[in-house]
Automatic annotation (TrEMBL):
This is Glutamyl-tRNA reductase. It holds the Pfam family GlutR_dimer. SUPFAM superfamilies: Glutamyl tRNA-reductase dimerization domain. InterPro entries: 4pyrrol_synth_GluRdtase_dimer, GluRdtase_dimer_dom_sf. It comes from Halohasta litorea. Residues 22-94 form the Tetrapyrrole biosynthesis glutamyl-tRNA reductase dimerisation domain.
Length: 97
């Protein structure tokens, strides 16, 4: 089953909020890892980073991602979410849908 079918349904317009939430989180994690690697490389070019400094940068990136995704995730976790709201979350936060 492809991503489109999992998140948005198999052509019936149904939306699986949990699949959308997982897809959004996975996409955000991929971006976080890419940006973290670039940031670490740039910082290392100016001198060696300690393990503590690396941990702090990683925690900051995780906190930023968590804050950005908290709103769409809370909408997708709600018991009474409407399908249009879920589709909006897909449109805004899941570029693969």
């Amino acid at each position: 089953m492809d991503h489109q079918q999992t998140a948005v349904g198999e052509g019936d317009g149904a939306v699986d909020p949990e699949a959308v939430k997982q897809s959004i989180r996975a996409h955000g994690e991929r971006i976080k890892q890419q940006e973290l690697q670039q940031a670490m490389n740039r910082l290392e070019a100016h001198g060696t980073l300690t393990a503590e400094q690396r941990r702090i940068v990683d925690e900051m990136a995780t906190a930023i991602l968590d804050e950005i995704l908290s709103s769409p995730e809370s909408v997708l976790e709600a018991d009474d979410h409407d399908p249009e709201t879920v589709r909006t979350a897909v449109d805004l936060f899941d570029p693969k849908a």
